[in-house]
Design a protein that fits this description.
single chain; alpha+beta; 3 domains
Length: about 375
């Protein structure tokens, strides 16, 4: 009876471990897909930053800086004589490019962050203020107007012989410095169907997403078109309420499938591998190092007349020896993680491990994509 209790405890613990592993691997649909038509739009504009402490563009090297200032003054009713344009010197002005991302469903009057980057040879944008700059989209229309003081997150202090500088001084950000002037029309709520675009192309994950949506909605409304697209037909209950439907399916959890891949960075000795990486029967001898890995499952027999079933518990034995020059064939395949753990336990360097993995891949025993950076 005591043995049966131990068996029951072991089986229960194994079941809980498997259940917890599956739960930990699950991800929300929101984190796996993008919704077609719901995206940011990139904006760009050309402007001036003023108020710099003599660290702006030089008139001799950046001729368009003076032209930009003259055009600005002309727009404000101030005319600069043509003969005096070449004599102008503005050390506290810098020409910049202003960029921003306009989020989906942004409304007129909303504010967004903008990024300001120097175009000329300005030494620093510290303490500068961006003048009103229209930001345009790819269609040439103005969607945002930006203006305000810059924050560069650094500083520069110069002395006669040496100076101190922190962070990059030619790029700054204006928090909430962009004011949305034009909206992008969207009829998303009236859609009869939506398309989910997988962030990573995978047929298995796309099929799982469609299956989970059908299970949650108790209807056959989702289908995987390919490894990248899942098409979903909105139920009648969510007519003219696509937003509510998307909110419903975004919280669903799906276990994404991952390709068997090993990423190797030879410069830093970094190795990253997925859980699906496996190797076939193989023997490894690296210099004076010998590794032997074999599977020895344990059979647990039930008590006589207990009507129980034989339980098989997996067990892996790893034997590592140094200083012996021999080679032994491993009779069964095993996870590559066990091989790596065994090698790391005796202090094998990452570069030696890279060489071993490359050799296993060349032999055809490594069932994974080996990507070398």
């Amino acid at each position: 009876m005591k043995r049966l209790k131990i068996q029951a405890i072991l089986m229960t613990a194994l079941f809980l471990l498997v259940l917890l592993a599956e739960t930990a691997q699950a991800a929300r649909v929101k984190d796996l897909v993008n919704i077609r038509g719901v995206r940011n739009n990139q904006l760009i504009g050309f402007g001036l930053v003023i108020g710099l402490a003599g660290t702006g563009d030089s008139a001799t090297n950046v001729f368009f800086s003076i032209q930009t200032v003259v055009n600005m003054l002309k727009a404000m009713g101030i005319t600069v004589p043509a003969g005096q344009i070449n004599q102008l010197q503005f050390k506290n002005v810098a020409t910049v490019m202003v960029t921003a991302d306009l989020p989906a469903f942004t409304r007129q009057g909303d504010r967004i962050d903008v990024l300001v980057s120097s175009v000329g040879d300005a030494k620093s944008l510290q303490g500068g203020t961006l003048l009103m700059t229209p930001l345009k989209g790819a269609d040439g229309n103005t969607y945002v107007v930006s203006q305000g003081p810059l924050s560069i997150g650094g500083f520069s202090i110069q002395g006669q012989n040496r100076g101190v500088q922190k962070n990059h001084l030619q790029v700054g950000r204006i928090s909430n410095g962009g004011l949305v002037e034009k909206e992008i029309y969207s009829s998303f709520n009236k859609k009869d169907e939506i398309e989910l675009s997988m962030k990573a192309t995978d047929f298995t994950t796309a099929g799982r997403v469609a299956k989970e949506i059908n299970r949650a909605m108790k209807d056959d409304i989702a289908a995987a078109m390919d490894g990248r697209t899942v098409r979903v037909r909105l139920p009648k209950f969510y007519k003219n309420n696509a937003t509510g439907f998307v909110s419903k399916i975004e919280s669903l959890e799906v276990a994404p499938d991952t390709a068997a891949r090993i990423i190797i960075d030879e410069r830093t000795g970094t190795i990253v591998m997925g859980e699906n990486v496996m190797i076939s029967t193989v023997a490894v001898a690296h210099g004076g190092l010998f590794v032997q890995i074999r599977e020895e499952p344990i059979a647990i027999q039930p008590e006589p007349l207990s009507e129980g079933e034989t339980a098989i518990l997996p067990r892996t034995r790893v034997a590592i020896e140094e200083g012996q020059d021999r080679l032994l064939v491993v009779p069964k395949g095993i996870g590559i993680g066990d091989v790596v753990n065994a090698l790391n336990s005796i202090g094998v360097t990452p570069r030696d491990l890279i060489s071993i993995l490359q050799a296993i891949k060349a032999s055809g025993a490594l069932h994974a994509e080996l990507e070398i950076m």
